[in-house]
Amino acid sequence: MAVGDGAVQEEHFDVLTKTGQKTGLSKPRGEVHRDGDYHRAVHVWIWAENTQQLLLQRRSDCKDSWAGLWDISSAGHISAGDSSLLTARRELQEELGVILPKDAFEMIFVFLQECVINDGTFINNEFNDVYLVTTLDPIPLEAFTLQESEVSAVKYISYKEYKSLLAKEDPAYVPYDVNGQYGQLFDIIEQRYKENNVARSLTLQKQLRRYAPVSLDPELTGFTDADKEALNLLVQAATIMDEIFCLQVWYSNPDLRDWLKKHADASHIDKLKWAYYLINKSPWSSLDENEAFLTTADSAVKLIPEATIAVTGWKGLEYKAAFPVLKPPGANFYPPDMDKTEFELWKSSLTDEQKEDATGFFNVVKRRSEFALDASIYNRTVDDTEHLLHSAHDLYTVPHDLYTVPFAQEYSSFLRKAAELLHKAGDLSSSPSLKRFLHSRADAFLSNDYYDSDIAWMELDSKLDITIGPYETYEDALFGYKATFEAFIGVRDDKATAQLKLFGDHLQVLEQNLPLDNIYKSKDVIAAPIRVIQLLYNAGDVKGPQTVAFNLPNDERIVKDRGTSMVMLKNISEAKFKHILVPIADACLVEEQQELVDFDSFFTHTICHECCHGIGPHTIILPNGKQSTVRLELQEVHSALEEAKADIVGLWALRFLIDQDLLPKSLLESMYVSFLAGCFRSVRFGLEEAHGKGQALQFNWMYEKGAFVLHPDERFSVDFSKAEGAVESLSREILTIQAKGDKEAAKLLLQKYSELTEPLQIALQKLENVQVPVDIVPTFPIANKILKKQGH
């Protein structure tokens, strides 16, 4: 119930569809249960890890449902416009007097309860977001402050005993079907705490073997003492990108990382956990469709003495920093319980400038109500939070709980340190272009305006090469709006760089000849500078499979005004070719085509891939005449489609340049065969990853068109007579979808072709059988020596 103007107003709920989506309507609580409308609530379970017990509450005798029965630790409806996690935290505070931060709550599943009670007068069609709070030991019963109108008593009970009582339908307990959806609670607990450590160690070892260790140790020939001192500072700045990225992935990720590192030497399995975490930079495995290889049971222990009222002799509540088993699509860029409907309703209320912030690369989205509740935890000011606990807002009339925070503010403590290091390195540098970039990027870290520093990066002309800042948007799987921080430090390969001028100089020619209607083609594509480097160190968003090249910036304003610039990581490409592509060819291709897989074809296609990020549709005109961008229109499907576009149009571009006698005809067959082998390499990254999903789309299209052939001996070949047509048709399909900003067409294309089809399964099984590495894990002797001196 809410209080306003001296009158009691009945609580309103969002009315949902039968699939749990918001309809845009809200109704009073009584009408919702009278009419059987679908709505949402939260269940919060407090689990004591050391005693394997769950906390139960006995419902007050005055409740309108299940009065006087033992039930969930804490539960409550989500008021209209309110969020799930915020409600879970509020209910725990209101009912039990337990105040916990959001990292104590793990969403474990959603349970749909459909029942009729009270002689048919109370219809409950309720989606329940089920949360688990994992404490080390039971909370002393005297530490709870019970809300008498809701809760009459609490007790701990063995989860096995509780499950048994529910199975027997004991009348003293609110019924839940332990053999149905709610059985997930007990399944999760049993799996989490009865896992065989020997079997788990074997699984982690198998996962680690998929990465071939490679040492990258480029020569520093030509570096002055000042250059080397600048390098020291840049490596230190790069490690700060790791800190920021760790936080961007998930809010409890830094605590998990520090805990795993601290306990890495405790046992063999702890050592394996830490090793695999270092590769993935999170508890989710990049090569396994982001499946969790850790659980909250593996996470950091945190103590909050003030979470409850004090009890003599008890130091306070210790809990595990939680993370969900399913990787959150919005990472830590948005509130964890925000859905697309809420975001779009909020965005529709904003000015054009505010909308740019909401969808921009360099801002996070937060909740005002969460900020206020967090303040109450640390200040323990009950009077200040009373209003928050009892005043729900209606999303459809006052959609202003969300707000944006610029990266410069959100990560200020990190970015100030990074800016200081970049300024110092800039002062030392003898290269005018490097000096300009480092100073302007340092300023951008503090101003949140990256335009000038991105231009300075594109004009970089220095033996010591660095890319540092927020760039890629893959981690934002909700919309593809938000950029993650990363760093690449390398030594420019002058000879290889000089050989690549051809590609950058012919971008406009490629644009004008794209397999795309002329109305969509740009007339002012700018030549893309290309730099080849030998990678010396990387940090930040470099988890899982290693990139062989990148094309930046992604800011559509700069792409339109100045084009893009490419950086090729030659020693990474060489390592992948040697350790992965050659063994793939040996295992999967017909013998007569194996010799066509060569490094020149592999590397040249990689160059064309990056070039083709800079051509094709970027800024577009929608059918209603409004200007937009491909990224904004395609949202979460943009990354996968863009990677597929760059790949397949890159293959088309190679053929075009060969036909123009700009590249040797000897590349013609080898490029198709090397591409086929490369399909199997990238699909192994997983279909949740943009490159893997895009590669599956391309392989299945080429296979359907007959360009790729599977033989009875389960080996593959290229039918050269069909390859060109298949490449051109897919290029046209993707480019047209992008030009129209047609998200539905993009989704349909990916749904149809981004599948692990039988031919792909055959190839992947062959590679599994012969244990070809999926990717590499680099080590950096020079950078590690620098960091060791600095005490890292």
UniProtKB/TrEMBL annotation:
It comes from Cannabis sativa. Residues 37-179 form the Nudix hydrolase domain. It comes from the Eukaryota. This is Nudix hydrolase domain-containing protein. GO terms for molecular function: dipeptidyl-peptidase activity; metal ion binding. GO terms for cellular component: cytoplasm. InterPro entries: NUDIX_hydrolase-like_dom_sf, NUDIX_hydrolase_dom, Peptidase_M49. Keywords: Hydrolase, Metal-binding.
